Every structure is written in C-alpha cells, then in structure tokens.
Amino acid sequence: MGMTKMKNQSAISNNPNSGTTIPKMDRNTPRRFNYHLSIGTKEAIAGYLMILPWIIYYLAFIAGPMLGAFVISFTNWDILTGPKWIGFENYRELFHDEIFWLSIYNTVFYTILAIPLHVVVALSAALILNIRTRFIGIYRTLFYIPVIISPVAIGLMWLWLLYPDFGLINLGLHSIGLPSLKWIYDPHLSKPIIIAINTWLFGSTMVIFLAALQDVPRELYEAAEIDGANLIDKIWNVTLPMISPAIFFVIVLQTIASFQVFTYAYVMTKGGPGNSTMFTVLYIWKNAFEYFRMGYATAIGVVLFFITLTVTVFQFWFSKFWVHYETL
Q1: What is the pTM (predicted TM-score) of this model?
Q2: CA 67 to chain centre
C-alpha cells in the first residue's frame, strides 16, 4: 500500500493534466520565511517610531548634557582654557563654602514658604471661579493674565513699584502719612517679597485646579448635603480627597520650580542685599558666568540635582498616605 501511494503521488506530480504540480526544490533556491508579528508588537514598533524624535532630543539635549555636566564637575574649567581633571576637589570646597550653604538655606526657606502659599491661593481662587455665574470666563482670564507676561518684565515692574525713593508703593504710603520701607533692599523683606511675587503668579496652577474641580461628581456633594454637611465639610471631605492627585501634581512641580528660582532674584536684587536672595541657581550662574568657574558651578548643580531628586522621591513615597486615586 505504501509503495502504491508513493507511485500515485509521483504520477500526479509529473502529470501536466492533473491540475496539481509540486515544485521541485533546488539547492540554490532561497528560502522565504514569513514573520507574523502580533498586533501588540506592531503597535509597540509604531509607538517607538512616533516618539523617536523625542528620544533623540532627550539623549542629545537632556541626558547627554547631564552626563557631560557630571564629568565637568570633576574638573577645573574657566571656559577660556581646556578643563583640567581635579577629582573631588570641587565637592570638598563646597563643604567649606559659606555662600553655598547660605544659598541652600535661602532656597529651602523659599520652598517651605512659597509652595503652601501658592497652592492655597491658587486653590482658593479655583474654588471661587468654579461657581457658575455671569462673566465667569472674563474673571478667569483676568486671574490668568499675569502668567503670560515675561518674568523679566514682571521683575522690572515690581522693582519699579518697590523702589525706596520713587516707587509707587512708597509714594502711596507717604500720601497717607505712613513711613516708607526699603522693601526689596531690606534683607528681612527681600525673600518674602519674591515669595509674594511667586504667589501672585498662580494662574497656571489655578487652571489645573479648575480642571480637577470640574471632574468631581455632583452626586457626591448631593450625598454630603443629605448627610447634613456644610460648605467646609464638603470641601474637606469631598473636594480635597477627590482632587488630591491634582494637588500632588502641583506640589511636585512647584517644588522642582522652587529649587530653580532664579529670574526675580537676578533681575531685582542680583542676590542681595547681603546675599539674602542668593538662591542656589543664582549662585551657580555667578560662578559660571561671572567668576568663570564652570567646574565648580557644575558641582553645585550636581548637588542641587540630587537634593531635588531626593525631595521628589520622598514626595512620591509620602503621597500614598494622602493622595486618593479613583478606582474603577
């Protein structure tokens, strides 16, 4: 039976009228392989191709410069000549640099006071502007306008308003018989003034809170009212837990930004008076572009990076105790 079956198959394959031909394999004939990719693999490849420009940008302008800065922090480089390797000498000098520690203190002081004030003011404005009333769009726009103004222009405007001799604020105080103040030129007032300016620029944070507030289900407020909750109870027990992810997001962004405060101190005080506004990033700038100590400035930047990273990691760890994510 086996021999008969093989003969029949051979006859069919060699018969031109049988309608079925089996091609003969040649040793020189290349074999073709069909690779069947799953839908998930195809989507992953498409996704990586889509973000490839961003990956190139990140490697070229973020990750690459960060790695280069880390290497430069171990050198003595005055920009005009080539860098010279000095090991950990820059980091040793940091521990004995009083201005560096003062800049860290100023930055931490700014961060501790600026973030709570900024968040509270922005959230309060968002709660008020979340009420449905006439011209609400105009009110929201007016609160947001300061954000779109150039930070340099804002710094110059406040410097003009707070100038001790002819500033409009002191002129107003004189007109009502009150004594004038040095304002930004007073070491005790300089940091609080910069914190106040940061609090005044709450428009972007307000928009984030507004978006979060509008996603809170109305049914939760109705249920709280049935239980006898007043306005404060509804804000504390419904609003804040529901928008806690947005609050956490804002706190993280504001923390990172506060460790990078620079513009208003540079425009208004140049770090004075008496180094009272010598923030860390401003001190980095002075060492790099005034003292031409690029290696030392980079070492300060590396230390500031790890401080910011540590604080951010702690915030993410601590968020599990108070941030409530909606589960389906």
Answers
A1: 0.81
A2: 20
